[in-house]
Amino acid sequence: MAEKRKRDTPARPPSDAASNPEPKRKRTKQNPGATNRIYTSADIRNFEYGISKIKDWTSKAVIPKHVQVIHWFDVEHLSKEECVKRYPNKQGKPCSITNIFKVYNTYAPRFYAEKGLHYIPLGKRGSARAVKQKKKEKTKGKSVKKVKRSPLDIRLKELFAALPSHASLPPASQEDIEPSPCQHHTNPNNPEDSDTTGDAIMFLCNTGSTTHGDPSGLQIHRSSILRHCSTIREFLLENSHIDTVTHGLEISADTVCRFAACITGFPGPRLPDFVTTAYGTFEQDWSMAELEDLYVLAVTLGAGVVCDLIVDRLVEDLRRPQPRLVIDEFGEARYFDTLDIGPELLNFLWLNDKKGFTFFANVLFSHGSKGYVRMAETHLANWHEGVKKVLIQTMENRKAIDLFSASPSTLRTFHHRPEDFPRRLPSKPPQPNPKTTSAPPA
User: From which domain of life does this come (predicted)?
Assistant: First the structure.
């Protein structure tokens, strides 16, 4: 019987190390446990407690502007959007969120290592709070401490839960969607109220020794400022040579342009649909962040007409059957939400604008328990104790106003009057005094 023939296999050619190099090995992390470590709530508390004990915020390893970014995130607890506004790039414009996080993630570990703290990344801090901890068994003779909640926070939650929800209210009619416009108009037939003559005031962003901004896009007629801005009017009247107003990074150039569009000429019954900047004229969507920044600038300059235009616009958006779509400052489409406010706004208005504070407080009240949820989402500790007390007192005294069903006369109580600001608005722009050439009397 013939043997079974073996299968012929070709001989393997000799390997050439130069032509067929060995496959590269994958790089492995030397210390994978450092990045995959799960931090406990105790680690978080110890780290945050160590931050609160830092008194000297200077560093030999990190320059001051990078230390300031770390302070914004971990001490002032500013949002990423606010940090971006305060940290300009080389062109003086707000940097991107990617860059602000890159600065923080690069220099925060060095800074805290210099201060003797074990750094915990931002992402790990959020996940650490969600890690379930084993309950400690009670031992005889020892009492387990319970986390105490603030009495103000507990009372706020109770009162907000007792507020009626606007979902149970009858839908507003089309006539009630748009509130009555504010009455702040000047007489268009009066030539003294025209802004076609006179010089302009330039608004520039000043950061220390550096001034940013394009003056050609940030000019506002002096007559408009004298008519509507009570805060700086006194200085302009006493110093006619002043032609520049500087501001900090918290006020963006776009916000100044929106403010100029509101007060230039004769303010209409609504916010302008188009705003002119140094780069052209653009359609204005009016997101909540833009309205909030504009309102803060208007209060700072004492421009009640701009405050009232914003109040009317928010009431209109509040009563829309369906929320409108807006493009935020990062180019993303989102639904407009009147509850998209934070503690910074209410804390500011509590000290500077009583009527504005009352209005935005009623925005929270009008949403019922959702108002408290919004406060909790932005961390109740960030809301000033005085703000909480006023909110509690208003609800306990049953003075909360439902903006969904408020009458036009009630809404007009949120409008500002000349006496709400330090100086009364003049009826016409003052004329500069002519220089005296004659000799003084003997």
Answer: Eukaryota
Q: Give the separation between CA 441 and CA 405, rounded to whole angstroms.
A: 68
Are 208 and 331 part of one and the same domain? Answer: yes
Q: How far apart are CA 381 and CA 395, in angstroms?
A: 20
User: Would strands 200-207 and 244-247 be described as parallel, antiparallel, or unpaired?
Assistant: parallel
Q: Which domain holds residue 115?
A: 38-130
Within this chain, do residues 161 and 120 fall inside the same structural domain, yes or no? Answer: no
pLDDT tens, position by position, 260-309: 999 987 667 899 999 988 788 888 889 999 999 999 999 999 999 999 99
Q: 286: which residues sit within 8 A by CB, 6+ positions away?
A: 271, 313, 326
Q: Mind listing the pLDDT tens digit for each residue in 162-176?
A: 988 654 343 444 344
The candidate with the shortest Cα–Cα distance to 363, out of 324, 337, 334, 386, is: 337
pLDDT for residue 425 is more than 50 = no
Higher-pLDDT residue of 377, 421: 377
My answer on whether 123 and 192 are in the same domain is no
Main-chain phi, psi angles of 58, to 5 degrees: -105, 155
